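During the reporting period the student researcher (J.K.) took over the structure-prediction task from the postdoctoral fellow and processed the backlog of single-chain submissions. One of the processed entries is reproduced below for the supervisory committee.
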Amino acid sequence: MKRGRFIVVEGAEGVGKTTQVGQLRLFLEAAGKRVAVTREPGGTAVGERIRELLLHERGARIAPRTELLLMLAARAALVREVVRPALAAGRWVLSDRYDLSSVAYQGHGRGIDPERVAALNAFATGDLKPDLCLVIDLPAEEGLARQRRSARPLDRFESESASFRERVRRGYLEMVRSGGGAVLVAGGGSVEEVRERMIARVRERWPSLEGSAMRRRGRQP
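J.K. obtained the following structure tokens:
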């Protein structure tokens, strides 16, 4: 069976990652791909427990190293239990965050050496890299304004200071500029406009996807 493909959507708070993961899922399924969608931290029983602690446990005082190691534990479980099996079964995996999040948040945001974070990421994931990593970019203040318009309460990371948000954003931009393979996508405009930019990047990586989608639409009554 042909191996599936691994696509990651990254970005700072408020850029619209979760929405765009859903849009990409619809595009890939229209092209005839079997798609598995997951998120970080989370996606497994262990990961969801860690997610609750890291994002919603208001009374917990979590030191940066502790935070990083918890993230890595959740990621290791996700790769072993979800991502690798899905890829081996021929599914395309879409993940809302992956390894660059730790470099951006715990590295650039919290002040842990980004190279050390990257090395620990490699250990936790068994060196599994995405086939495509899309980084949605938006000014930090615009991301915060979007979140404030939402009715739901902000989690621990969403409640961080403006300076933390800006460090995270700069970390992502630095990783894109470093030539490590991450692709920048402008996050401004409507959901539909961002969707088209995202899909354009996916088509650049796999040109045959558009033809597959068109053929499937042509077979619909």
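The committee noted the following: The chain has a mean pLDDT of 93.
J.K. will present the remaining backlog at the next meeting.
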